[in-house]
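Figure-free illustration: sequence to structure, shown twice.
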Amino acid sequence: MSARCFEVRPPVTRDDLLAELRRVGDEGDAFWSAFSDRDFLAPLGTAWSPADNVRHLIKSGRPVALALRLPRLVLRLLFGRARRPSRSFERLREDYRAKLAAGAGAGPFAPLRRPAPSDPRAWRAGLMARRARAWSDLVAQAGRWGEPDLEGYRLPHPLLGRLTVREMLMFTLYHEAHHAANVASRLTPRA
């Protein structure tokens, strides 16, 4: 599968955002499921294995779904009110890429090193089930938010600072596609 398969259609409305979250989630399921068990667990040179990428995506996505479950008042008290409109998907993506180019990394969201599982097939099935639950929960929680609230509340991002809820969802959408595209590009021989 080529890295081009993971291009995100920039969402504008809440409904666009939800549709794109569903589409990219489904695409991710198909991509991560296509690996053999051996290849899923194998590092890609010095880079994370596909399994490590999935673990990272779960670890970084779960807090977003959890935050979206909190009462709006709690979010406002913890992170303040949004004082500016959301950046566009393209601007947010460029800001994130600039942070990565400057050397930012996954920090506490990096997957911890683990010994090889004794039953790779069962371990992988469990990991993919956790991924599916986490992504499904994220989409369900995002669906509880209306257009005005996506702009009015903020959540903290470890690299980008406080983002509107819309920006956080756009980031999460891009982040999922970004990791799948990176893995795909490492699998594609360079001409």
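We now fold a second protein in the same way, so the two outputs can be compared directly.
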Amino acid sequence: IPGPASPARTPLAEPIFIIQSDKIDPQKLELYKLEVKDGRRQVVFPERRRKDSPRPLHLSVKKLEGNLYRVEANEGLALGEYSLTPRGSNSVFCFQVY
């Protein structure tokens, strides 16, 4: 992901997102901590899964009404860059915990 930091920022260690979803299944969202390297944010998945492979952090997803969902980090996040991404997709929503 280009750039060392996301413009979307939160001081909350357990952020809550309200998402209106028409095309993405919120139950398939995964949360990853990103590494900043050479002015870019990234998470690297090896071809073969290893013990040190990135694992998604815990999320809670609750349907509010219609296609409106509450997505919440279920654990305290350390300062840094993060992404929400639908499982199996290259689409990301990035944010920073500061």
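Summary for the second example: The radius of gyration is 14 Å.
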